[in-house]
Design a protein that fits this description.
Layout (H helix, E strand, L loop, with lengths): L4 E5 L2 H14 L2 E5 L5 H8 L4 E4 L6 H9 L4 E2 L2 H8 L9 E9 L5 E3 L3 E4 L2 E4 L6 H17 L4 E8 L2 E9 L6 H7 L4 H9 L13 E6 L11 H8 L4 E3 L4 E6 L2 H16 L5
Parallel strand pairs: 1-2, 1-3, 3-4
Antiparallel strand pairs: 5-6, 5-7, 5-9, 7-8, 8-11, 9-10, 11-13, 12-13
Helix pairs in contact: 1-7, 2-3
Length: about 270
């Protein structure tokens, strides 16, 4: 049995992230950033064992045509139709990110539920009881079983009512960086494991908490100069310029939030020390 070829049709950043995960697993990734018609998708699939797509680039109709020709596509047209039937509610300020994966053999894995508030993401969501976290996780996994998900998904829900779905993300999850800096298995590796029907990896945290924040450029500077101060101040900080994000994991949540907010303010030029 040879290693499979996985096609990925997604924005450049998502192609880069899933290619990195594929390289670690020995999986060849064939990437494309362009929108495709049914014929283009069918032709793209010819030398791939399966395809992972960002649905914003491919219509459900095109997916159905390619599937009829034998292409294996994730998320499938059937899954997208099921997801699209779920009512989306008005976006609110405080949100929960519920990120999970499920394989074709119904093995499921879920990451700690994160709080997404303004330009910070905090995992696990603070002030959430274990009982509430379990209730939300079970509800999410039940939904994934009901719609027969294969692959990965991020559900963004109202923090005050987790049953109100606000947003669904596939290859561009808000909480991807959290999983990258503080999870045993990150989102993109898990996504590949799920669609390839490999055993799923552990999703527990490496540290008790993790916080990530968006970065904004100082209009009087550039994106490189702030590194000198920030990396010297805290060598544990993690950066990803592709995401324009900074992150930190550790045991003291208050200290993590303080460090990330300082990094954001210094990076943007709001403070100078």
């Amino acid at each position: 049995m040879s290693f499979p070829v996985v096609g990925v049709i997604a924005p450049e950043l998502a192609v880069s992230q899933i290619t990195e995960a594929g390289n670690r697993l020995g999986i060849q990734v064939k990437g494309s950033r362009k929108k495709m018609s049914a014929l283009e998708l069918t032709n793209f699939a010819e030398d791939c064992n399966l395809i992972c797509i960002e649905p914003e680039l491919i219509s459900i109709g095109a997916i159905k045509v390619a599937e009829q020709s034998g292409a294996q596509i994730y998320p499938s047209s059937k899954l997208l139709t099921a997801i699209n039937s779920i009512e989306l509610h008005q976006v609110v300020e405080d949100k929960l990110a519920i990120t999970a994966a499920r394989s074709a053999h119904a093995q499921s894995a879920i990451w700690p539920i994160a709080l997404s508030s303004r330009d910070l993401i905090i995992s696990p969501a603070p002030a959430m009881s274990e009982e509430q976290a379990v209730t939300i996780a079970v509800s999410a996994l039940d939904l994934l079983n009901e719609i027969s998900l294969t692959g990965g998904i991020e559900l963004i829900v109202d923090a005050n009512n987790y049953q109100n779905l606000l947003e669904v993300n596939w290859l561009q999850p808000r909480s991807a960086f959290i999983s990258d800096i503080n999870s045993i298995t990150n989102y993109f590796e898990q996504y590949l494991r799920a669609v390839l029907d490999l055993p799923l990896g552990e999703t527990g945290n490496l540290q008790l908490n993790a916080v990530t924040g968006e970065l904004r450029t100082d209009p009087n500077s550039d994106d490189y100069r702030p590194y000198l101060h920030l990396m010297a101040r805290n060598p544990k900080l993690k950066f990803d310029q592709r995401l324009r994000a900074v992150g930190l994991a550790g045991g003291n949540l208050e200290a993590l939030i303080t460090e990330i907010i300082h990094a954001q303010q210094y990076y943007s030029g709001e403070i100078d020390s």
